[in-house]
Amino acid sequence: MVDFKLNRYIFSVFLTILFYGENVNAQLITSTALSPALMVQNVLLGGGISASGITYDGSPTARGTFNGSSSNIGFASGILLTSGNNANAIGPNNMSGASTMNALPGDPDLNIIMAPTLSYDATIIEFDFVATSDSIRFNYVFGSEEYMEFVSTTPGGINDGFGFFISGPGIAGPFSGGAQNIALVPGTSLPVTMFNLSLNTNSAYYFDNGDGFGTGTAPDGLTVQYDGFTVPLVAVAAVQCGQTYHIKLAIADGGDDILDSGVFIEEGSFTSTGNVHISSSTSFGGAVSGNDTTIYEGCGFASILFDRGLNNLSVADTFSFSLSGSASNGIDFSSIVDSVYFAVGQDSAYITINALPDALIEGTETAVLTVYANTPCGNDTATITLLIVDSPPLTVNLNNDTTLGCPFLNLPLTVSVNGGVAIGNYTYTWTNTTSTSASAIVNPIETTTYYITISDSCGNTATDSVVITINPYIPLQLALTNDTTICEGNHVLLDANPSFGLPDYIYSWSPSISLLDSATVAPVSSTSYIVIATDHCGISISDTVTVTISPIAADFSYSFITNQSVHFQNQSTGAISYLWNFGDGSQDSTSTEDSPIHNYINDGTYTVMLISTNSEDCSDTVYQSVIVLPDFYFYFPNAFTPNASGRNDLFMGYGVGIKKYNMKIYNRWGEKLFETEDLYTGWDGTYMGQKAPSAVYAVIFDLEGYHFEVARRIGSITLVR
Q1: In this structure, is residue 380 part of a structural domain?
Q2: What is the pLDDT of residue 2?
Q3: How many domains does the chain have?
């Protein structure tokens, strides 16, 4: 088992590294903002329940609320309890091992459910509650990252699970305090766990959300991270009204503390509403302003649902009801009896009321049903009122007949409908158009009649028509300037000439250069101009002209052969001829060569010009400054006589083209006697204020020219006194 847990941990970490960096917008939203008490009181509880003594045991990030309105979890909102972190539930399913380890213990009741697997990382909310009827119920979905890779029937395997443990008067079970688990696979006594509900077992209640790798038995889900989850299930328990009960909502990892699971509980679904309940739904081919209590004469029916709760399911029962209101049983609606029967184990039953046609205009009539029941929670009644209304006359009006001087006008046809049944849900049938809605866009090229037939949800119909008459029209045509080539900086006239259609014309140029039929342009690069001409009918025609800039770009670089001999490299593009001016006014200061060599007589700064010309006689000019320096050379004497005679009293080097200079004098023992970086400063034959004796001394020169020539000269000099 140790090796198995270690391998699963490594697998989980690998998947987290591989996929968790993806930033994909998920449609499931989770939050840990609310406290456990507010989660229960403000989110979980619905009608007929009061709660107290709310406690929470688990990580603060393992519980919270969710918004699933844009997801496929099955609930719009609610609370979420997980065995790790509720943020790991957020889709898309791009990991197969989303996991958070909270290092928390398991739960003894969950150990019983998961047996022989042990539980880890438990998350638990508990509270006491009092119900106002004989039953409680709530809706939930269980999901897990363990699906389906670790689903196994092997004892001791991975079996994440959860439980809803209820205890109190009349309840006896195997869990702590005599509690029962009401999170069961429908129609069985099996707890909802990975072993008991998956793609392999009780699969009718399972939704396959892929494996996070794109290689599962279903596509990876876009809104939820978990690899699988149940369909919405219902937890139900019979209770004694007015008595105090305790419930523990718990979830944990099974076998180890990695790979998260979570249970979603629908907002407001924890309810205990009434001992007897009556509701209705209507059907007539469509909805009536969202009203489930309105039916029309001769059209559709109402289904009346009676719900008797849970405590009486072990015996058959009959609920009586009375009929009142202005509608007559058997005349305005189909005849019904005055009671409804519940067989043993049956918690709900229904009757059907059909509204009958009588061809009379009677206005709205009412049928009031009041049901009476004796329950363990006392006598109870419930009432519902049905509205039976006359089917209003159906009328339709289409646009007036129209004469057009323009074809293909995208003419809107709009229907105005009054009366009938199913306002907003009519059926529209057109001729000569594919529209199926209350409007159509038509483009008649000849005189055409358009018919519209409206049907309401009761099958009533009404028809109208419109005639669109088209006058003769010659299609719009357009002539535009031909494509042309110009030099950069030159101008060209673009001229659009529309004909036929229906004047006056409107012009639109792209790029935006004019609102007229012509424009003068001077593009800096090759450009395509589109003109759209629109006539009085709103019909447009377009054409394109391309103005090409004949490519020419003058450019050059240069390199020094010597300090005063320069090689110019032509780097022009698009050119076929060249004119150089080297800027020194010499006899050969101009050239038509491609890449000439020019020798400057004197040093200095010269402006060099290159004019390049292409085959279209377009030219471009470029200028560069060239700094010409003296050629590099250097020498030094081999002796000097520092005797203050005014001749040969200093030792120094001599040269031209020298940018950096260093001279050092050493005696025969390697001691440096003198150093200078000034070409014009010499050694006077002294050292530390004393005259150096006549001898041979070593000299080192370090030199650099203006074009980065580097040289070292080493020699000897004789000092003669």
Answers
A1: yes
A2: 33
A3: 6
